[in-house]
Structures are given as C-alpha cells and as structure tokens.
Write a structure and sequence with these properties.
The chain is an all-alpha fold. The chain has three helices and no strands. The longest helix is centred in the N-terminal third of the chain and has 75 residues.
Length: 133
Amino acid sequence: MNALETSKRETFVELMAGIGAGARELAAAHAQQLSEEMTAETDRAHLAIGFLIGGTAAIGIGLVFVLETLVAYLYEVRGWSAWTACLTVALFSIVIGVPVWIFGRSQLKSVNVIPRATLHSVGESLSCIANRR
C-alpha cells in the first residue's frame, strides 16, 4: 500500500467517524427534545385531570344540597308528588351535567400524546440527510 492509499483510507475512516459522531449528536438532541415535549404534555394532562376531578367534586357536593333543597321545595311548597319532584330535578341535573362533562373530555383530548414537534424535527433531519446523498 502506498502513501496515497493510506491517506485516502484515513480520510474515509475520519469521514465515517464524523458521520457517526454527528448521528449520535443528532439522536441525543432528538431524545432530549422528545423528553421535554413528553414532560410538558404529561404536565398538561395532569393539570387537566386535576381540574376535572377538583371541579367535579366541588360541583357534586354543592349540587347535592341544591338539588335536595329543590326537591323539598317542589314536594312541600308546590305540592308535587315526591317521585315527580325527584325525577324533574334528576333530569335537570343531567341536562346541565352532560355539556360540562363533554367540555372536560374535549379539554383532555387536546393533550398531545404524540410528540409532534419531535417527529417533525426528526423528519426534517432525515430529509436533510437524504438530500445530501
């Protein structure tokens, strides 16, 4: 082997080592981005769930007393039968509760469990690598 072939071989080895190092750095950067994005989305999910649970508990406790008072009013003051008063209050509660529950569910659905920003940047990186060939 002559000096020119040795020089070319070392250059190729150095080139491959550089590509490997670049790929490791890129993978590490994407892993860090993925970790940060997933942490942010997990925090958002925890917050949304906490608000749903806390709000539901507070509303539930308050509604129990308000609805019991309404049933007592309809039964004792207005002269309705007990079952009519209870059914009317129950239906009213359902009509109010369903839209609130749907809103909470839609808020929870807005949490992204797929790390879209990371996937986008990985796609861009792969596109750049492919276009350099």
